[in-house]
Structures are given as structure tokens and as C-alpha cells.
Design brief:
The structure holds two protein chains of two kinds. Chain A has nine helices and twelve strands. Chain A is α/β, with parallel strands linked by helices. The chains are: A alpha/beta, B mainly alpha.
Chain lengths: ~260, ~350
């Protein structure tokens, strides 16, 4: 069964066609990463899939048409971690993670025991329980990232969209975050669609890659199929060497 | 799940108003209201006022020693005025707090979407046309002000909430600026042509808690209670707007609906307050901001405290307005700014030091 099914998706922003007829499928429990140079439309694809921006074509999440769903229903199916989440400085971590429960509550309804337990569990899974009483604005980059992912997990949706989840993190935290997402994906049968700049990391963690260039998918498949020297150098305008490793290809930039 | 995080209550609960904050707020209202009853041009005495108030309770009968004239001053002049101050102050401050949340704009006040300009225009029209003098129950001036205020806000919302290039917040705020400027211009034009009514219009614009018995309170109370209740109920979702419209939407919040509900409640309540008491400025800005600086940024705390402290603040301002040049009165809008501005600077500086 498909968790995400995009058919002929196009997006026009400010008169410019950013996505041009995208077809993309992600199976339930799968992890697909969209790679591609700056300005290719990666974040736009995430935002369209999350129902945040308007698009033409058809996107189905767990067999539900995204355009037919109201905010609250859509948020029960899909959680979005945006590239630069707005961090409300004076909000405590616990209250921030509880925002993930909004779609499960009526318009005027307070959070119940169940919502609090879900938020605590999300914090615990991300090893961030000790931060619950801190203000979000005072956290380090890595801590913030974990808390933002915890909020997405608290949403308890089967599909999670991650736009550059590791950009703000050092190598150790990048690894830790991606390992954790992968572990949660397997344990909870989550479906993940992400974007990533680091091609080697993208290849290591996702089962499927799609290379997006100027609003079109130019290559799709396993890391070995997409991360080739020919594709990367022609579409990124970069000189690279791809080393075959038993755990997947390693993309290394070459000096002139 | 491990239970270690459950040991400390404050860690596992969403932020909410605590008992000591609530007690402080109720105490502020009681003390200021009592001061509003005791002090004034006629000397009533604290003990006598307390005894008279207890006399109103069933099965209690004190002889307070107040003459029937003094009793009339207490129950027909001061008490309605204090209650009116509480209602207007609560409403303006709560509307201001709600607007600051829903527009994520620290400068938002209850008049943001043109309520003041619309009310000024309506009142001017009624005064100039000679159909009312601004006194009494069902006088056309407050009704015209009320209608003008609501027309202005409706116009702002219609113009500003289309799906265009700008986000809804910016577009509504800009539409509010345009609508307010337009109504102010028309009002000034009418005023200039009918200069003999300038003084009357000027008094309305400055604002005052003028009462004729309980009429104004009866008129205003239902609006205030309903509008404040609605805003109080939205307080939890106002916190979600802190992450921006887009993220709040992806969390499942219907941002446009929340904004519409809040704007309707805040504008309706403000329009009713303005119709009865004129344009009292500053309350809607400084009360919620002071509470935010002292008690934190969650609307779960700001809104309930603002309801109490807004009322208390206006009762104090009215007391100063009545006493300082007695028997003459200073317009209350002058006092709110005169008292509020320096107080706010102190709070702001203290907050800087503490952060």
C-alpha cells in the first residue's frame, strides 16, 4: 500500500513554476529522500505534500486526498518538520511538544492525560525528557532539533515529512537524529519523506532516493542508482568522486 | 514509560494559571473596586461602606450611619461607575491581549482594525446631525458609535482577508490602517464643517466612565461577558499561533477560523465598550504586556490575568481622573496614558534586567 502518492503535482509560486508534474510514491513504512541542488523545489514538494501550499495535480496520503482534508484531519495523517521552524522563545519545551496534539483536540478543548503521556513519550524517545521544563528559546541547535522532531512524533501521524532535518546539526547529532528517525520508522511503521543536502547520509538512511532538478524528477531508485558520478556532477555542477562502499555509495567532492 | 518525569508536577503539565496568580488578580480587583467606592468628592468612610455592602446580603442588617443621600451616592453613582470601569477595562485589555496573540504583533491594540475610527465617525455623525447628545439609555450617539465601529471592522476584514500575495496578518493590519485613516478623514471633514459640535465630539473621543445609574452597565454587561468568555476559551489555541500561521496550520489548527472568532469577539466587545465610554487608549497595550513581562508569554496565563488586571487598572485610572482636580474630572484616557506609560517603562526595564 502507498502511504504517499503524488500524481502530476505542479506548484506555481509568484508566477514561476517551481514543480512541474511530479510523480512520486512512497510505500507504507518506507523512507524516501529527495535530493537535488538548491532551488530545485525540494522544500516546495514537502510543503505541497503536507498540504501547506496549493498545488495542481493529486496528492494522496494513506489513500486520502490531501486537498479534500481539513487542517485537523490532515494533521492526523501527516506531520511536517519544516526546514526553519519558528521557535517561540518564551515557550516551555513541554508546551511546545504538546502543540503536536492540537489536531487531536476540539477547538476549545484542553489537553488530557493521554495527550500529556504522548508528549512525554515523544520527549523520552528523543532523549529530551530532561529538557521538558526549559524554554525552547534557550536550547542548543541540536536540542531544538530533537524537540521539533518530538513535536512531530507527538502528532501520532503515520506519515512524517522532514525538510532538511540535519542541516543545523554537527556530524554526531546528524547521525544520532537520523538513526533515531530510522529506528522509530521501523518500530512504528512510520513513512518518511525527507529532503537532505548530504548525499552520503541520504543514501545511508533512506531506502529510496529521488533527484529533483528544476522542478522535475530526473532520477529515482536506490542510492547506487541515483548517486552516480555522472548524475551528481551534471546536475549539481560539482566535481565529485563516488566511492562504492558495502553500506552504500560515498560522495566525495574533488578539488580542482 | 519511565515515571521519573512524573515526579515533578510542573514538568509534566501544560502551563496554566496557578492559584496564587488567581488570588493576586482577584485581590487586585477587590482592593481597587473598594477604593473606587470609598474615595470621591463626598466622604463616605471605609467602615461605613463595608457595613452598607454587607447590608445588601440577606439576613444581615447593620446601621452604617450613612444618610439616604450617601447611600444613593454609593449604590447609584459609585458602584455602577466602578462596575463599568471593571467591564470596560477588562474588555479593552482582553481584546488587546487577544489581538496581540492573533496578529503576533506587540503593537496590536483593540483599535487595530478600525474600531476607534469607526466609532468616532459614527458618534460624530450622530452628534452633528443633532439626533443625540450622548446622554442616557438608548441614546443615538453610543448606538451610532457601536454601528460605526462594527462597520469599520467588517470593512477591514472583508478588504484584508483575501488570499493574495501578503500573509493574512500583514494584509489585515494594513487594511485596518487604510480603513481607520479613511474614517478619521471623513470624521475630521464633518467636524470641520460643523465646528460648534467640536467640543462634544472631543469629549467622546477622549473617553470617560460616565454613568447615569445602572443603565450603561446593563447595556454593556452582556456583550462584555460573552466576548470575554469566547476569548478566554480560545486562549489555549492562541499559544499555537506562536509558531506562525503555516506551522500552526500543519499542526491541525484552522488559523483563519481562530482569527475570525477572536476578531469578532474582541471587536464586538470593544465596540460596545467604546460606545458607552468613548475611546480609552493604552489599556489594551500596557495591561497584557505588563502581564506578559511578569508572568510569561503563554496566553493560558495572559488572558485570564488580563481580564482581572484590566478591570482593576481602569478603576484606578478612573479614581485618579475623579480625584486629582476634583470636583472637575480629567478625561480617563489622559490618566491611563499618564499613569500607564511610566509604569510600563519600569516593568520593561525590570524585565530587561531579569533576562
Amino acid at each position: 500500500m502507498k502511504a504517499i502518492d503524488c500524481r502530476n503535482v505542479s506548484v506555481i509560486l509568484g508566477g514561476y513554476e517551481v514543480l512541474k508534474g511530479i510523480d512520486l510514491e512512497v510505500e507504507v513504512g518506507g523512507w524516501t529522500t529527495i535530493v537535488g541542488p538548491n532551488g530545485a523545489g525540494k522544500s516546495t514538494l514537502i510543503r505541497a505534500t503536507g498540504g501547506i501550499i496549493e498545488f495542481s495535480g493529486n496528492i494522496r496520503i494513506i489513500d486520502k486526498n490531501v486537498q479534500d482534508l481539513r487542517h485537523r484531519e490532515l494533521a492526523k495523517f501527516v506531520a511536517v518538520v519544516s526546514q526553519k521552524p519558528i521557535i517561540p522563545m518564551g515557550m516551555r519545551v513541554m508546551d511546545y511538544v504538546l502543540l503536536g496534539r492540537v489536531s487531536h483536540l476540539g477547538f476549545f478543548e484542553p489537553e488530557g492525560e493521554n495527550d500529556i503521556e504522548t508528549a512525554l513519550l515523544a520527549l523520552e524517545l528523543l532523549d529530551a525528557s530532561h529538557l521538558s521544563d526549559r524554554f525552547v528559546g534557550t536550547l542548543s541547535g541540536g536540542e531544538k532539533q530533537r524537540v521539533v522532531v518530538a513535536r512531530a512524533l507527538a502528532q501520532s501521524s503515520p506519515v512524517i515529512l522532514l525538510d532538511e532535518p540535519t542541516t543545523a546539526l554537527d556530524m554526531g547529532h546528524q547521525q544520532e537524529t537520523l538513526e533515531l528517525i530510522n529506528q522509530l520508522r521501523i518500530e512504528r511503521n512510520l513513512t518518511v519523506l525527507s529532503t537532505m543536502h548530504d548525499l552520503t547520509l541520504a543514501g545511508r538512511y533512506s531506502e529510496h532516493l529521488a533527484m529533483l532538478v528544476e522542478g522535475k524528477i530526473v532520477a529515482e531508485g536506490s542510492a547506487e542508482e541515483v548517486l552516480t558520478e555522472a548524475l551528481v556532477s551534471s546536475h549539481y555542477g560539482a566535481r565529485v568522486k563516488v566511492i562504492d562502499d558495502k553500506d552504500g555509495p560515498i560522495v566525495v567532492p574533488l578539488p580542482n | 514509560m519511565s515515571t521519573s518525569t512524573n515526579e515533578n508536577d510542573c514538568v509534566v503539565k501544560p502551563v496554566s494559571l496557578n492559584k496564587s496568580q488567581l488570588c493576586l488578580a482577584v485581590l487586585a480587583v477587590l482592593i481597587t473596586a473598594f477604593a473606587g467606592l470609598v474615595f470621591g468628592p463626598a466622604d463616605l468612610g471605609m467602615k461605613e461602606v463595608i457595613q452598607e455592602l454587607f447590608n445588601k446580603l440577606p439576613l444581615i442588617d447593620f446601621d452604617s450611619g450613612l444618610s439616604s443621600r450617601q447611600q444613593a451616592i454609593l449604590f447609584e453613582i459609585r458602584l455602577p461607575r466602578v462596575v463599568l470601569g471593571l467591564l470596560v477595562g477588562s474588555m479593552l485589555a482582553t481584546a488587546g491581549g487577544a489581538y496581540q496573540g492573533v496578529f503576533r504583533n506587540p503593537l496590536a491594540d483593540p483599535y487595530l482594525l478600525g474600531v476607534a475610527a469607526g466609532a468616532g465617525f459614527g458618534a460624530t455623525l450622530a452628534i452633528v446631525s443633532g439626533i443625540g447628545d450622548g446622554l442616557g439609555f438608548l441614546d443615538p450617539v453610543p448606538l451610532a458609535a457601536f454601528a460605526g465601529a462594527l462597520i469599520a471592522v467588517a470593512l477591514t476584514y472583508t478588504v484584508g482577508s483575501g488570499r493574495g500575495r501578503l500573509d493574512q496578518v500583514t494584509s489585515l493590519v494594513l487594511a485596518g490602517v487604510a480603513v481607520a485613516s479613511f474614517f478619521t478623514a471623513v470624521q475630521t471633514f464633518i467636524q470641520q464643517r460643523e465646528s460648534e459640535t467640536i467640543r462634544q465630539v472631543y469629549f467622546f473621543v477622549l473617553g470617560q466612565l460616565r454613568t447615569a445609574g445602572w443603565d450603561e452597565v446593563t447595556l454593556l454587561a452582556p456583550y462584555t461577558l460573552i466576548c470575554i468568555t469566547v476569548i478566554f476559551l480560545t486562549r489555549r489555541r492562541l499559544d499555537a499561533l506562536a509558531v506562525g500561521d503555516e506551522e500552526a496550520g500543519s499542526l491541525g489548527l484552522d488559523v483563519r477560523r481562530l482569527r475570525l472568532i477572536t476578531v469578532i469577539a474582541a471587536s464586538l466587545g470593544t465596540a460596545a465598550s467604546v460606545a458607552v465610554s468613548g475611546l480609552i487608549g493604552f489599556v489594551g497595550i500596557i495591561v497584557p504586556h505588563t502581564i506578559r513581562l511578569i508572568f510569561g508569554s503563554s496566553y493560558r496565563v495572559i488572558i485570564p490575568l488580563t481580564i482581572f488586571f484590566g478591570g482593576a487598572f481602569l478603576v484606578v485610572a478612573d479614581l485618579v481622573a475623579r480625584l486629582i482636580l476634583q470636583p472637575a474630572e480629567i478625561p480617563i484616557g489622559v490618566v491611563t496614558a499618564f499613569l500607564g506609560a511610566p509604569f510600563f517603562v519600569v516593568v520593561l526595564r525590570t524585565a530587561w534586567k531579569n533576562s
